[in-house]
Design brief:
Blueprint lengths: L1 H34 L12 H20 L4 H24 L5 H18 L2 H16 L1 H10 L2 H17 L16 H39 L3 H14 L4 H26 L4 H26 L17 H25 L4 H11 L1 H11 L6 H26 L2 H24 L1
InterPro entries: DUF4010, MgtC_SapB_SrpB_YhiD_N
Pfam families: DUF4010, MgtC
Protein name: MgtC/SapB family protein
């Protein structure tokens, strides 16, 4: 009885997967049929019925290859390819349309029909949906390609080179004085800074000045608000009229880093939260309120017909210079700790806060209570956050325009003073 039930269950599952292969093929067929809906029956190379059957055929071929002979799938696939090529050639002779997108879609339908039956149904479904979306958005994809400029494509390829090719090749271990210099982490910082510039460029170009600036500020606050501040300060010189909105974007980015601090503490050492939440929350809310005020008072009067975007969306040279500078700060922080011992915790927090707020936050939360007490850790984290924002305020003041620097520096100083006072009392 158990064997019969097991065989029945296997047969039912196989039938279900074959049915899904049929339906996934029909999904592609619906999209293809909609595109060619004005053609008469028989004029289309492949419509909903053909795609549904090809999906089912792919599932049957994979099943035969698994149970009868391993040659079944490749032979049937080659047969489908040959039939499709004959039909495509006949269509080209009449319509002079040389696109092979439909042919590739038909062969993909055969393949994910096989995947649905013998590999993974969820994977096959995902492939089918992605295929349908790509086929359905022909005009949108071609439109984006037509709007893409040569220097933008060059920047995208360079970003892929430094992130997908170079980054995995670097050693992920500490080197140099005290083992503080990790090539992988430093290059990751360079990639992050370059990515901020890249995302900001396209966010402003696609979403416009107002939406693009605020979106990029929020994104940068989750990764590198320092890079965002540098980028927006430079941008304010190219577009002085955007100074107030760029200042709001910087404040949003700087405010978003404070929820990150609370998240780290909650995950690593929740005992710090009672002492940490008040100063950190106050500092973050203060910057958000200032950003909201600037946006409310400026967005309606913002009139920019054309934004002067940089010709270099990646700004890789700037990212390399800032990465080198931050690596030097990390070495300095290690020397301070070795020289002063536990008394150098605050100096270490201050020096590390310039380079990487995440690293010092994680370090101090892990040191409680074995090496330092909670009060020392909280004050150290707030000092690091203060120095980090003071550094960014300095970047805005020395690089940005007058319309940017005052709107960034004043809320920063006010927020940080309140945070330091609350941390000291805690």
């Amino acid at each position: 009885m158990d064997n019969v039930a097991s065989q029945l269950l296997t047969a039912n599952e196989t039938a279900f997967r074959l049915g899904m292969a049929l339906l996934l093929g029909a999904l592609i067929g619906i999209e293809r049929g909609w595109v060619a809906r004005e053609k008469k029956s028989g004029e289309r190379v492949a419509g909903i019925r053909t795609h549904a059957l090809v999906g089912l055929l792919g599932g049957v071929a994979a099943l035969l290859s698994k149970t009868v002979t391993s040659w079944a799938f490749p032979l049937i696939f080659l047969s489908v390819t040959a039939i499709s090529l004959v039909a495509w050639r006949e269509r080209v002779a009449e319509s002079h349309d040389y696109s092979i997108t439909g042919l590739i879609g038909l062969l993909l339908t055969f393949c994910f029909g096989a995947i649905a039956v013998t590999v993974d149904l969820a994977l096959a479904t995902a492939i089918a949906v992605i295929t349908a979306v790509i086929l359905d958005n022909k005009d949108e994809i071609h439109g984006l390609l037509n709007k893409l400029q040569s220097h933008e494509l060059d920047a995208a390829l360079k970003l892929l080179l430094i992130s997908a090719v170079l980054l995995p090749l670097l050693p992920d271990r500490g080197m140099g004085p005290g083992g503080v210099l990790n090539p992988y982490e430093i290059w990751w910082l360079v990639v992050l800074i370059a990515s901020i510039s890249f995302v900001g460029y396209f966010a402003i170009r696609v979403g416009g000045a107002e939406k693009g600036i605020l979106f990029t500020g929020l994104f940068a606050g989750l990764s590198s608000s320092t890079a965002l501040t540098l980028h927006y300060s430079r941008q304010s010189r190219r577009n002085p009229e955007l100074g107030p909105m760029l200042a709001a974007g910087i404040l949003v980015a700087c405010g978003t880093m404070f929820p990150r601090i609370l998240l780290y503490a909650a995950v690593i050492n929740p005992t710090l939260l009672p002492r940490l939440w008040l100063p950190v929350t106050t500092m973050g809310v203060g910057l958000y309120v200032a950003a909201l005020y600037i946006w409310r008072t400026q967005h309606r009067t913002l009139k920019v017909d054309r934004i002067q975007l940089s010709k270099n969306p990646l700004e890789l040279r700037t990212a390399l210079l800032l990465g080198t500078f931050l690596a030097m700060i990390m070495v300095l922080g290690t020397w301070l700790q070795d020289w002063l011992g536990n008394a150098g915790i605050y100096l270490l927090a201050a020096s590390s806060g310039i380079a990487d707020l995440d690293a010092i936050t994680l370090s101090l939360t892990r040191m409680v209570p074995e090496r330092i007490d909670a009060s020392t850790a909280v004050l150290g984290i707030v000092i690091a956050a203060t120095v980090n924002n003071v550094f960014k305020a300095g970047v805005a003041v020395f690089i940005g325009t007058p319309r940017l620097k005052s709107r960034v520096a004043v809320p920063m100083v006010f927020s940080l003073l309140i945070g330091l006072a609350l941390a000291w009392l805690a």
